[in-house]
Amino acid sequence: MIIAYLGPEATYSHMAVIRKFGSSLRYEPLPNISDVFTDVAKGRADYGVVPIENSTEGAVTHTYDMFVDSELKICAQIVLPIRHNLMAACPRDAIKKLYSIPQVLAQCRQWLQVNMPHVEVIETSSSTRAAQIARSEPNAGAIASALAAEMYGLTILDENIQDSSENVTRFLVIGRKYPQPTGNDKTSVMYAVQDRVGALHDTIASFKKFKINMTKIESRPSKKKAWEYYFFVDFLGHCDDARVKKALTELAKHTMFVKILGSYPNVNG
Amino acid sequence: MIIAYLGPEATYSHMAVIRKFGSSLRYEPLPNISDVFTDVAKGRADYGVVPIENSTEGAVTHTYDMFVDSELKICAQIVLPIRHNLMAACPRDAIKKLYSIPQVLAQCRQWLQVNMPHVEVIETSSSTRAAQIARSEPNAGAIASALAAEMYGLTILDENIQDSSENVTRFLVIGRKYPQPTGNDKTSVMYAVQDRVGALHDTIASFKKFKINMTKIESRPSKKKAWEYYFFVDFLGHCDDARVKKALTELAKHTMFVKILGSYPNVNG
């Protein structure tokens, strides 16, 4: 079995993959979220792992947008606590430049302002790339995972430097079909509504009518017409449940289209 | 009168400022969105201009998050068509590295894949910074505004390279109080709901009950507790309108708090 994920190695996506699948399968780190979708769609990988949401920074919009044109289904979620670490090959006082991916820098914004106000902060394409630079460049530090420090032989100078103590990222496992009900499942759908008073309300009322608990709503631009949105909704239940089926039938009456992105076990680890 | 904006000069925010205020006032380009909020809150600037949403890429989440702890009000919106341009000081074939801000690169993703698949793409902190690099570094190109090409003496090699022909960014003018009704206004509010079935539905039903047209909903993590969200809603009407007042009173019954971010003319230019 082959699992594709958003690489490079030692990123938080890599840690999510290991948490879910252990370390005995074949893993393919890929450069972009779209590459992960493509590899799974073409059968070059059985499953893909991509980030969807961070509890501090919010949606990973590129992943949401990929579902618009993809027929892939969500098979599982992985919830990973994110712990950022300051690391370098030099002493802490010697750090003049600090590297990391924009999302990680955003999650450490307050810590950086208080602890390293005069250090030049430089954005990289991945936290692993930041660790590589900290290995090779003098007076450079990185913010990255403990796995990256280990892989590149860097000293962890400060642990858990993210601003929110509850910093958690949710990853999705994508595949070609979604699993059977387990009794504690979650379903993700996307839909579009017409531009009229109460249109969004009527879609959300479809869930309330059948006592279905929405856990999340996200809006994304359709990219087809300015200020036209797609809505992504997560709710508790499996799309094979009778009650969910009724709600989805009701929802279809109030939308231009509904697409079921998948039903999967509602686990938090 | 002093207007602070998200700098540096020649960014799209700068173009939005000129569109709204002309070129005779005093403008202060600032390095971060939070600096713009701080300058206006402390009275060092009368108004601030920050991006809130792009029609292709979606919300500028940092701006949304600033309203959580700020008492500033939205006074106006500016809607600016965004036209990205490929520019360099060398011929097109000589470009080996291409620089721009991540949001601009995202808006040109398909164009880049088709037209420059083998060029190294490097993220910068602003499109103006990208233009500066294209000026000083051999074999470097930038994607930036026409204003940046003019300011740094670069040749525009390709125009309008954004993927969506309807690429528009909405900016907000923030100040210390919002204006009187004009008869065609928009209001922005934020609120939080309790975690129970139908909670979000009941808030949206408050708008439908009084026939108020929601134009936008955005959810953002509260950053206080994982998977707890704040909702940001835009709707037509001014918060001094009788019908809007009734809806906001109804909304308050179904939320933990409601904060009015401002009412402002609903202009699209």
Q: How would you describe this structure to a colleague?
A:
2 copies of one chain form a homodimer. Chain A contains 9 helices and 15 strands. With 269 residues, the first copy, chain A, is α/β, with parallel strands linked by helices. Chain A folds into 3 domains: 2-81 and 167-175, Periplasmic binding protein-like II (D-Maltodextrin-Binding Protein, domain 2, 3-Layer(aba) Sandwich), CATH 3.40.190; 85-158, Periplasmic binding protein-like II (D-Maltodextrin-Binding Protein, domain 2, 3-Layer(aba) Sandwich), CATH 3.40.190.10; 185-265, Alpha-Beta Plaits (2-Layer Sandwich). In chain A, strands 1, 2, 3, 4, 5 and 11 form a 6-stranded mixed beta sheet that branches. The longest helix of chain A is centred in the last third of the chain and has 12 residues, at 242-253. Chain A is elongated and about 65 Å long. Chain A binds chain B through residues 54-58, 61-62, 102, 106, 123, 125, 163-164, 166, 168, 196-198, 200-201, 204-205, 207-208, 211-221, 223-227, 229, and chain B through 54-58, 61-62, 102, 106, 123, 125, 163-164, 166-168, 196-198, 200-201, 204-205, 207-208, 211-221, 223-227, 229.
